[in-house]
TrEMBL record:
Main subcellular localisation: membrane
Annotated localization: Membrane
Organism ancestry: Eukaryota, Viridiplantae, Streptophyta, Embryophyta, Tracheophyta
Transmembrane annotation, as ranges: 44-64
Membrane topology (UniProt): Single-pass type II membrane protein
Organism for this UniProt entry: Quercus lobata (Valley oak)
Protein name: O-fucosyltransferase family protein
Family: Belongs to the glycosyltransferase GT106 family.
InterPro entries (UniProt xref): FucosylTrfase_pln, GDP-Fuc_O-FucTrfase
Keywords: Carbohydrate metabolism, Fucose metabolism, Glycoprotein, Glycosyltransferase, Membrane, Signal-anchor, Transferase, Transmembrane, Transmembrane helix
A single GO molecular function term of this UniProt record: glycosyltransferase activity
GO cellular component: cytoplasm; membrane
Pathway entry: Glycan metabolism
GO terms, biological process: fucose metabolic process
């Protein structure tokens, strides 16, 4: 079956087409991988080459499992100090990208290295969030919780999922959350403008009680207001918070980001977090429908595409102090912006040192060179998941190597984008879906969106996600630029470095403190993904 037919058959089933489309990802990637373009002249030679390549990969995977430990430590050392994106809350508006027409397509993909689209091996793993109704029983309510979700889209989404779990722990009734309108994105959208309210209530109906507004009898109660302590264990909610809830009947949580610890939480609660995050918190039909159109335009029947989270935006560069390859004027503009934002505590930053530590967002040129090195041909379609790219050269250095660069700005028409004007969170939701559905997701900065999308892709069956080893990469590209190593040596080193950074299954990494553990939503295994032997 071709991909087009998969789409058509799913589109024919009204209502659930998007669900089906997501489930089909499992199927699509197998088809894609085992039946690469065989229908062209010279296919016999090509076919034999494929068999040799396939045997080579089998051998490679056998070796990889032997070096599992080594692999784990590599994944681990990448997780150095990651900047907390939540601290970026100011009022710079991200301007929409310039209007552009459809980029002219190049001739069909040439012969290419087949493993660039190969998905990680995850045959042993499956999602496991379905619970028996017994565990899902709802106790008598102890009171109502109002939650104000703070931060950008993904921070709010993970925060709300945690609050669903907290409502369960407390046997509380959850009032439909209110959203942040004052974060960096200054988006006035409410819950109902971003999320499908009916779906949210319906999917969670066996788990918690949800009401749209406070009922009459408690509407006059002055809510007890509190920011729950960050990274708390369930016992904090079962103790101190439950007492407050019983006493006041209505509690308002002013923050929802990272209020529940990643680990040390009962399995049923972990599963509920995923049920909320991946099943209940679907975006509105308006957002899903446009996302589906954009994906169809990108695929145009049979194309594969990369979704690139190019977090090279002004706010992030100012916050991190990363000014590599920017002009003096630009670096100064970023510096002034940083000094102007009082809640950004760090002011004097050595951007060069940061970059060498591997914690700067990659520049458009760096990521272009990375993709070229890994073997993506220049006609690869790349969907940019981001707002306006900073710097006088903007996205130019990427487009020079990969002309087929798309974004919602040039894939959607003006009329289609009109309802999303000044709705940055809704645009982020649109991009989220396009990124989730991509063949390969690449992120250049480990922020909230990158975490949420990579976790969701793991949940959907370990879809390929390239996690660049920025620290080693920048060292190598600097050597290349200084003429200290050849292109051949550089590219083979970079390729080897990224062979096992493709989102393969590994259990969520521990850390010395709650804050330093790998994020539950970036890697919901264990918890929501199980190995075939377990149950
Ligand atoms: C919540 O309700 C369940 C089921 O009725 C009950 O077993 C549990 O003890 C209750 N927990 C709290 C904190 O009220
Ligand atoms: C889609 O593919 C067809 C034929 O394969 C081509 O003629 C057309 O230009 C493509 N359209 C877009 C928007 O890529
Ligand atoms: C940025 O890098 C490019 C390519 O290496 C170089 O041509 C350009 O001069 C650099 N610009 C600045 C401001 O350093
Ligand atoms: Mg349910």
């Amino acid at each position: 079956m071709t991909r087009r037919r998969v789409f058509e058959s799913t589109e024919a089933q009204d209502g659930y087409q998007f669900d089906m489309m997501k489930n089909n990802v499992f199927f699509r990637r197998k088809v894609r991988h085992y039946f690469p373009k065989l229908l062209w002249p010279g296919r016999w030679l090509y076919g034999s080459l494929m068999i040799v390549a396939f045997l080579f990969f089998l051998a490679k995977f056998a070796m990889l499992s032997t070096f599992h430990e080594f692999h784990m430590s590599r994944e681990n050392d990448f997780r150095t100090t990651v900047e907390d994106e939540s601290k970026i809350t100011n009022n710079i508006l991200v301007e929409a990208q310039e209007e552009g027409s459809f980029t002219q397509l190049l001739p069909p993909e040439r012969f290419q290295n087949p493993d660039i689209w190969m998905q990680p091996d995850s045959a042993k793993y499956h999602k496991c969030v379905n619970q028996s109704p017994k565990e899902g029983g709802i106790g008598a309510t102890n009171g109502y919780i109002l939650v104000h979700a703070n931060g950008g889209l993904n921070q709010m989404k993970t925060g709300i999922s945690d609050m669903v779990a907290v409502a369960k722990i407390l046997n509380a009734t959850l009032v439909l959350p209110s959203l942040d309108h004052r974060s960096f994105w200054t988006d006035p959208s409410d819950f109902k403008d971003i999320f499908n309210v009916e779906n949210f209530i319906e999917v969670l109906k066996d788990d918690i009680n949800i009401v749209r507004t406070l009922p009459q009898e408690v509407a006059k109660v002055k809510p007890y207001t509190k920011a729950p302590v960050s990274w708390s264990k369930p016992r904090y909610y079962r103790g101190e918070i439950l007492n407050l809830l019983k006493k006041h009947k209505v509690i308002k949580f002013t923050h929802t980001d990272s209020r529940l610890t990643n680990n040390g939480v009962a399995s049923s609660i972990q599963k509920l977090r995923c049920h909320a995050m991946y099943d209940a918190l679907r975006f509105t039909t308006k957002i899903e429908d446009l996302a589906k159109k954009l994906i169809n335009r990108l695929r145009n029947n049979s194309n594969r595409y990369i979704a690139l989270h190019l977090r090279y935006e002004k706010d992030m560069l100012a916050f991190t102090g990363c000014d590599h390859n920017l002009s003096e004027v630009e670096a100064e503009e970023l510096r002034q912006l940083r000094y102007g934002v009082t809640h950004w505590k760090e002011k004097e930053i050595d951007g060069k040192e940061r970059r060498l530590q591997g914690v700067c967002p990659m520049t458009p040129r760096e990521v272009a060179v990375l993709l070229e090195t890994i073997g993506y041909p220049s006609d690869t379609k790349i969907y940019i998941v981001a707002g306006k790219i900073y710097g006088q050269n903007g996205i130019g250095p990427l487009e020079d190597k990969f002309p087929n660069v798309f974004s919602h700005s040039n894939l959607a028409t003006d009329e289609e984008l009109e309802p999303f004007k000044h709705r940055q969170n809704q645009l982020a939701a649109l991009d989220y879906i396009v990124a989730l559905e991509s063949d390969v997701f690449v992120y250049t900065y480990d922020g909230n969106m990158a975490k949420a999308v990579q976790g969701h892709r793991r949940f959907q069956g370990f879809l390929k996600t390239i996690n660049p080893d920025k620290q080693r990469f920048v060292t190598l590209i600097d050597k290349l630029d200084k003429g200290l190593i050849s292109w051949e040596s550089f590219s083979s080193k970079v390729r080897v470095l990224h062979e096992d950074r493709i989102g393969s299954p590994y259990p969520r990494l521990a850390g010395i403190s709650s804050r330093q553990e790998e994020s539950f939503y970036a890697n919901p295994f264990p918890g929501c993904i199980c190995e075939k032997s377990e149950q």
